[in-house]
């Protein structure tokens, strides 16, 4: 968008009738570029504006509903149902089969979110509440069991390793002359 | 499936929509016909352009152009209201300063611990 504006400015400068600044200020611009039909319009208020916007977006007047005007920048863009492209009929001959969309069809504001690779609003095979209960039930149960296992530990009995030769007295640097005390590593 | 219930992320399929089977009113059928007429005219426009043997250029889609323009110009009809300013503050200003202070405080505390020798390197493998 910025590139188009810059190009037009440069063209006006080079081809303008006046020189430099006066060409910019004359208000003349090229006839190419976007027409009013492809530009976002202001939020419609009167019935005529609503009818014109519905015609612009290829919607029936009854189907057209703009976003509520809360200053969020939607303009007159239609508020379409929040359904992903994955919900559309896979067997119908769409003009663009991967996007499941026909040419000229009004696109949802979040169309790039609702493509088939991303968010999918299609009906789930099992009711949502059942899925939530199963998933969180399983996770909760496993967490609880791990907590119990940490609190009440249970493993094979272990003891410190017992070494021969009076607990390795010589290897640990004990004096060879001295007689160390007797070490008993067993119990009968 | 007679007890299917919708959820926020799970909609009702068209084949389970009771309107398809029980709503035979003229208005509903007329509305469906109007939608079909719009769809048919768009289809014809597209197909004539697609099958035109002299066409060399891309077929441009005005709906796509409108969508791109709408998404690329969010501030054309933007109005600073209470809600939009609040959202701007929450997402733009608060994380900027908040994260700065969080990271700075955390790092200063870690530096003080290192200097005092009380840092507990719980997951260090080299010691």
UniProtKB/TrEMBL annotation, chain A:
Keyword Membrane: yes
InterPro entries the record matches: NDUFB8 (IPR008699), Ndufb8_metazoa (IPR016551)
Region spans: Disordered: 14-52
One annotated Gene Ontology cellular component of this protein: mitochondrial inner membrane
Keywords tagged on the record: Electron transport, Membrane, Mitochondrion, Mitochondrion inner membrane, Respiratory chain, Transit peptide, Transmembrane, Transmembrane helix, Transport, Ubiquinone
Ranges of compositional bias, category Low complexity: 14-36
UniProt keyword annotation of Transit peptide present: yes
Major subcellular location class: mitochondrion
UniProt record similarity statement: Belongs to the complex I NDUFB8 subunit family.
Assembly, per entry: Complex I is composed of 45 different subunits.
Task performed by this protein: Accessory subunit of the mitochondrial membrane respiratory chain NADH dehydrogenase (Complex I), that is believed not to be involved in catalysis. Complex I functions in the transfer of electrons from NADH to the respiratory chain. The immediate electron acceptor for the enzyme is believed to be ubiquinone.
Protein name in UniProt: NADH dehydrogenase [ubiquinone] 1 beta subcomplex subunit 8, mitochondrial
Organism: Sparus aurata (Gilthead sea bream)
Highest classification ranks of the organism: Eukaryota, Metazoa, Chordata, Craniata, Vertebrata
Gene, per the UniProt record: NDUFB8
From TrEMBL, chain B:
Keyword line: Electron transport, Membrane, Mitochondrion, Mitochondrion inner membrane, Respiratory chain, Transmembrane, Transmembrane helix, Transport, Ubiquinone
Record keyword Membrane present: yes
Subcellular location: Mitochondrion inner membrane
Domain of life: Eukaryota
GO CC entries: mitochondrial inner membrane
Main location: mitochondrion
Transmembrane segments: 84-103
Topological category with respect to the lipid bilayer: Single-pass membrane protein
InterPro entries: NADH_UbQ_OxRdtase_NDUFB4_su (IPR009866)
Keyword Electron transport set for record: yes
One Pfam short name: NDUF_B4
Function: Accessory subunit of the mitochondrial membrane respiratory chain NADH dehydrogenase (Complex I), that is believed not to be involved in catalysis. Complex I functions in the transfer of electrons from NADH to the respiratory chain. The immediate electron acceptor for the enzyme is believed to be ubiquinone.
Subunit structure of this chain's protein: Complex I is composed of 45 different subunits.
Family of this protein: Belongs to the complex I NDUFB4 subunit family.
Protein name as catalogued: NADH dehydrogenase [ubiquinone] 1 beta subcomplex subunit 4
Organism lineage: Eukaryota, Metazoa, Chordata, Craniata, Vertebrata
Gene: NDUFB4
